[in-house]
Every structure is written in C-alpha cells, then in structure tokens.
Amino acid sequence: MGLLDLQGVTKSFGDTPVIRGIDLAIDEGSLTCLIGASGSGKSTLLRIMNLLEPIDEGAVLLDGQDISQPGLDPQPIRQRIGIVFQSYNLFPHMTAAENVMLAPRRIKHLSRAELQAPVTALFDRFGLTDRMDRYPDQLSGGQQQRVAILRALAMQPQIMLFDEITSALDPELVGEVLDVLRQLRDDGMTMVLATHEMGFARALADRVCFLDQGRIAEEGRPAQVFGNPRHERTRAFLHRVL
Amino acid sequence: MRHTSQTRREIFETRQRRRANLLAAGSTAAVLLALVLLVPRAPGWDAVQRAFFDGQIFLDTLPGLARAFVLDVAIFAWCAPLIALLGLAAAIARGIRRPALTPLRLAAIAYIDIFRGLPVILVIYLVGFGIPGLGLPRPWNSPYLWGSVALVLVYSAYVAEVIRSGIESIHECQRAAALSLGLSEAHVMRDVILPQAVRRVVPANMNLLIALQKDVALLSFIGPVEIFRQAGVYKSLLANFTPYVGAALIFLAVTIPATRYADHLLARQQRARS
Fold first, then answer.
1. C-beta of residue A96 within 8 angstroms of C-beta of residue B177
2. Residues of B in contact with A155 (CB under 8 A)
3. pLDDT in tens, A218-234
4. A172-188: per-residue pLDDT in tens?
5. Which of B10, B102, B195, B247 is surrounded by the most beta carbons within 10 Å?
6. pTM of the model
7. Fold topology of B56-273
8. ipTM score assigned to the predicted complex
9. Which one of A92, A93, A103 has the shortest CB-CB distance to B181?
10. A155 → closest Cβ in B174, B177, B182
11. Quick check: helix, strand or coil at residue A205?
12. Which residue of A has its CA nearest to B198?
C-alpha cells in the first residue's frame, strides 16, 4: 500500500463519466507522471486527490485513512496535500512573500515576523530572493509558477500535485520550473505530475501512467512505457506527441 | 532640424489633430453664440432673469447657503461609513452557502430587494415620519437620526449589490487555489476574495457616493434645515428663486470634481487590467 491509494475511483460530471474506475498507489518519495490527451482525466484525478472534486464511487486513502468519505472536513487533508495549477492562480493583491505566508499565518497562526526567516530561506533555495516583495503582475510566468510552488510547499505537505504547470509558459521559461521539480525530487518529495513534458517524464519519473478516456490504459517504468508501449492507444498517443 | 525629422505619418496626424480641434472649437462657439443671442429673445426672459439670476440676491444668500451645506456634508459624512459596513455585511450574507445560515441569506435577499425597489423619498417619509411618530423621547425622535437611517438603508442595499457583483467577478480559480491550501471558507472570503472584489468595485461605489451626496437634500422634506430647505426659506423671504441657483452651484462644485475623480479611477483600473 502506498502513501496515497486510489481504489476503484469513478467520477462523472452530470451524465459524462470522466474517471471510470482508477486504481493507483503512490509510493512515498516517488515521482509519478500522468500522461494522456486533453480530456483524458488527468486534471480531474489530481483535483480528486486534493478533495477539490468529490468522487462518485471508490475510495482515496491517505496513510490508510479514507479521505474520500462524504462529510469529512477537507481542510486538514488539503494541508497535507499541496497542489499547483496550470494558471498559477497567485493572489494578485499580495506580494510573492505574502502569498507564501498566507496559509501558515491563518492555519498555523504564525506571525509575519516568525515566518520571515523560514520563508526567506525558501525563496533563497529556489533563487527567488529578490522577487519576494514583488506583486504577481510584476513577475514573469516562470517566476509566478515557482512562487505558486513555494506557496504550496509552505504548509510542508506530504504530497505535491502538479497540474500541467508548464503548459501556460513560454518555452524558454519551462526549464526554470522543471528545475524546481528536480530539486524537490532530490529532496525525496512525493510527487504526482500531470504533464505534457514527455522528456521530463522519461528522464525523472519513477512511474508513468497513460490515461485514456478516464482509465489507466497503461502504466510502468518510463523506459517501458515510452520505449516499448504495449497498448495500441499508448503507441498512437506517443506517436502524436513525440 | 527637429521638424524635418518628423515622419510622414506624424506630419499627417498633426494636421488631422489641428483640423479636429478647429472644428470642435468652431462648433462649440457657434452653439454658445446661438444660446446667448436667442434665449434673451424669448418672451418671458426678463421675468426669468429677475426671478432666477439676480446677482445681488445671489451674493447675499450664498454665505447662508454654504453654512447650510455644512449640514449636508455632515449627514453625508456619518452615513457613508455606515453604508460601507452595512453594504458589505449584506453582500456577504447574501453569498453565504452554509445551509444552517439560510435565514440570514434570505433576510439579506429580502432587504436588498425591498430597499432597491423603493423610491428614496418614500423610505425617508416612512422612516422619518413613521418612527418618531411612535412617540419616542428625545433624542430618539430626531429627524436627523431617522432621515439618516433611511439613507443608510437605501444606499447599503445598492452598495451590497455592487460588492456582490465584485465577488462574483473573481475567478473560481482563486477560490480553488485558496481552498487547496487548506484555508477555511471564511478565510478564503476574507483574505482572498473580498480584498480583490472590493478593489474592483471602487469606481462603481464612488458613483453611489456622489448620488448619496445629492440625495441628502431629500431629508429637507422631513425637517432638517440643510441647503435645499435653506434655499426655500430665502425664496419665501425674498420672493425670488435665485437662492436655488446658488444651491445648485454649490452642489456642482462638489459633485463635478468627485465625478471626474471616479472616472479617473475607472480609467486607471481599465488600463491596469488591459
């Protein structure tokens, strides 16, 4: 059993099924990449893990605890599972540092003064020290996305989810964001990544899952999925994107 | 030689601009000239000029009107913060999602619907005459108090709707991002949604403030001697309407700069968003 376990998860939007029975175990310290066409269910699956979407059937277990049961207070769970979105979604009326401090201030009741040192250290580590007091619209897309990652990290989550976080970026800015992911992987962070960056997935993922119409059509080590796909639909998808 | 360094396009645009300015000045002058020449030819002009534009009466009554206007400003000044608070509270109550608090939400909807649907003067009459009519002791029978309450009730309903439109204009992604951090609904609203929403509707609320400044004059109907009522007193005393013109000019001296400032805020906001 993994740190996070999905068991027979299904989810429909109205009459449209988007997740049709997914079993997935995320091991502690692993990097899992979800690949697949738009609409295959990658984003929905990540939003389910963060409890932003309720599921219809099945269960999601975090450390063995069923976090998907209806009526459960999602707040403490979300504090343990960070998520970063494609569109950054920084709070535009706060500086980068205030964005990162908000959740610890409100949830852990720490003061700005108490947070100054650890947050500065966090910005230092990812080369953003001189951007701490800038507002989001004064930052490049790559910088905004890196701040969004720091904001999720500030609650020291056990798992980080990344929803196509480089898809909205200019090509020359993708690298700096992927570097952050490399750093987190070296730290041993448990990560799940929905991505179109096949090169990154191939080089760094422990496991690649190919989603097709709400199911995991194929999964395995990157060398196997990319090098020798068994499934016809996987082959067709990889042929289109590579 | 600076001039020869102008591009062909710049020379063309300069000429166009000069032409446009000339046309604008010419047509404005023509209209003004027509007004000045034609209005005095109207059969009743002499009577109107005497009744509305008596220079001596204007100068004599202006200081008294200005003193009375201080009361308008005071009523405005104590109403505005109360309106901001009540409007914000009603906007938040109207957006509440928790089932247990549904009565609060329904009360907010009823309040906003009722007070947005009534003429201001009607509310001032009902509240301003009705409540002191209960025979309350001083100072609870004051028309200043209940007139102000009427203004606060009406304008808070408008402000609530403006703030609500601001809340709804904040993209769902902001909510999702805040919730994903583990923040409570209350903190999401207070720290993330409201600060953005309120900022976004500052220009719309400025327009409501300007309208409020004018509607303070309606309180004169239930007693307080503010500028409009003072002008009425002068009118009866001097049998001349010029004090009303003076009062109008005093209002404009405040509302026109305020309107320009609101427009300036709106323009700046639109520039920032594009």
1. no
2. 181-182
3. 999 999 999 999 988 99
4. 889 999 999 999 999 99
5. B247
6. 0.82
7. MetI-like fold (1.10.3720)
8. 0.90
9. A103
10. B182
11. coil
12. A93
